[in-house]
Amino acid sequence: MEMTKMKEIKMVDLQGQYLRIKNEIDAAIQEVLMSTAFIQGPQVKFFAEDLAKYNHSAYVVPCANGTDALQIAMMALDLKKGDEVILPVHTYVATAEVIALLGLTPVFIDVEEKTFNIDPNQIKSKITSKTKALVPVHLYGQCADMEPILKIAHENNLYVIEDLAQALGADYAFSNGAIKRAGNMGIIGCTSFFPSKNLGCYGDGGAIFTNDPSLAEKMKMISTHGQKVKYQHDIVGINSRLDTLQAAILLVKLKYLDEYTRRRNEVADHYDKHLAGISFIELPFRASNSTHVFHQYTIKTKGIDRDRFKKYLQDKGVPSMIYYHIPLHLQKAYRQNGFGEGSFPVTEKLSKTVLSLPMHTEMTEDELSYICQIIKGYNA
Length: 380
Hints:
380 residues, single chain, Aspartate Aminotransferase, domain 1, Aspartate Aminotransferase, domain 2
C-alpha cells in the first residue's frame, strides 16, 4: 500500500470531524453571531445543563479552559499557601502549575507502569499534616484506580479533585457493583475542551463538575470575578468564562460524543488486533474496572531506541507524539530538593519509552492498515 494513494495521515483530524457536522456547527455559530450574545449567552447555560446530564453530575460550571478549572476548584476548597496537594508526576504541567500558582506545594507520586495513572500504593507514604488534597489524573482516556484513592482520602480527610481532561465519558466500576463516571467520584472534577480533546471546541474551553450545591455556587462566583450580583464582589475571583460561540459548538458536538468514543475504541481495537505479538512494542493496558475513551493510543517501546523508531515512522508518513518526554520533577520550574533522576523510576522509564499513535474519529481502514504495516516493517 503506497502513501501516495491516501491523504496525509494526521494525529488528529479536526477538519474531517468538522466537515461531518458542518451544517449543524455553522448554524449554531450563525445563531450566536446574529444574537451578538457573545458573553454568557443562553448556549452557555444550555451546554452546562446538557453536560451535567451526560456526566451524571448535579452541577457543571463552564470556564475558559481546563487549567482555570483546576485553579477555580482549588480556590473554592479554600486551600491555603503551604498546603500540600498530591498528584502524579507523569502528567501535563497544568496539573502542577495551578498548585504552584496558588502558593500550594505539589507533592509528586509515581504512576503504575501498566495504566500510566497514579499509583495508589504510594500515596499514604506522602501524606503529612499539611496534605489537603489529591488530584488523580485519568491519563490517556482511562480512569485512575479510584476506589483505593477515595478510601485513602476519606481516612485522611482529604479532598479529591479529578483531572479528567483526557477521559470525559469514561466509567469506573467499584467492587460493590456501582459504576461512576470520570469527574463524578471526587468532590470536584475538572476538564478541558481544547480542540484535540475527545470533546473539543474551536478554541479554549473548560468545565468543572460537582454534586455539592454550595461548591457549585462558589465556583461560579469565582469564575466571574467573585460576584453573584453584578458589581458586587463577595469573594476574590478570576475572569474565566466559556465563550458563547464555544458553548454553541460544544452543544452540537456533545450529541456525538458517545459516537466519537465508539469510533476511537474501534481504532484501538484495530491497533490491538494488528499490532499484537510485535516484540519491540507493548500495547495499551485496559483495566478491568474502567472503560477507555482513548484520548491517546499510547504504546511502550521495548529494547529499541524510541526516538529512532519515531523518526522511522515520521519518514514513512506516520505521525506520532511523546506524552511526556520530560517528567515534572525534572522540569526546571518544578525541581524540588532531593528529587533528581531516579526519584520516580516508573515515570522516568515511561518518558523514554512511551509513544502515542494517530488516534481520532476520522481514521480510515486504509490508514490504519498502512500504519500497522509500517510498524511491523521496522527493523528492530
